[in-house]
Amino acid sequence: MVSSPRTATHRGDFMAFFGFGKRGFSDLSEQEILALAISAEEDDARIYQAYAEMLRDNYPASAAVFDEMAEEENTHRRWLIELHREKFGERIPLIRRENVSGFFERRPMWLAQTLPLETIRKEALVMEASSRRFYLQAYQRTQDAAIRKLLGDLAAAEGGHLSLAHRLGLTHLPSDVKAEENEAAHRLFVLQYVQPGLVGLMDGSVSTLAPLFAAAFATHQTWETFLVGMAASIGAGISMGFAEALSDDGALSGRGSPWIRGVVSGGMTMLGGLGHALPYLIPNFVTATAVAIVLVVIELCAISWIRWKYMDTPFLRAAFQIVVGGALVFATGILIGSA
Length: 339
Description:
Number of helices: 13
CATH superfamily of the largest domain: Ferritin, core subunit, four-helix bundle
Strand content: under 5%
Number of domains: 2
Order of helices and strands: HHHHHHHHHHHHH
């Protein structure tokens, strides 16, 4: 059952009051669902057009495909606006994907400018798969016959775009649609499990450096330092786990069970912190600190490799970002502990 605009507004205000800041998809009215679809189609059309401009000089064939896709998204937008005008009038509520909890977020264009062609093609596959999921969810939540018909037609249209891999000439894939769907599923798997795990590992490995080494250099006692590291790691793991589980129910974004993501994120956060806390079980302070520092370097290298392997980030850039951040937090801990 679709919530009334008044109820949806009150629930949105309630969430914003407590700091969540995003509306639940189940709280949106039919008018707001149409408005969200309009803004999403506008965004996707701009992204495809930007891809086309980026590729036009070196890859004119792929650029032509993205030009066609941008025009298709603009056609969908016009259909949605016409239906909104017929059902609700001229005024379209201002609501965007970043205002809705669980809505799949697109990669910022300033990051996409450095992506290789193969990655851009894969990004387009994931965009189409996530758009189809959105229309299927919206279709199931609406009751107006005309709105259901259009949303169902758009879901079918986005599903038809799964042949995009063939149109773009992904050379490493067979031409059958099942393989193309598997490629999209793999990319979504990264979002469901690899991404929350990576975020947790980064948080645990980096954020616990300061309290651990502050305690180490303030006390020069290995057991007390170990207890601080344990407390920081477990506390951060619990916090990250709940934050991930409560951020998105997974129905709209396709990111899977929130509790599985919470366990993955919390567990990796805890693991990242414990990695450099466990060496302080060694009684000798100098030896324990040396081992902990070596493990920190290994952890940061592992994070850089995962970002390169699964998140399409160049390894040197990933390593630079992680090492600089880790070094700053590490230095902060030492300075505070030595004060």
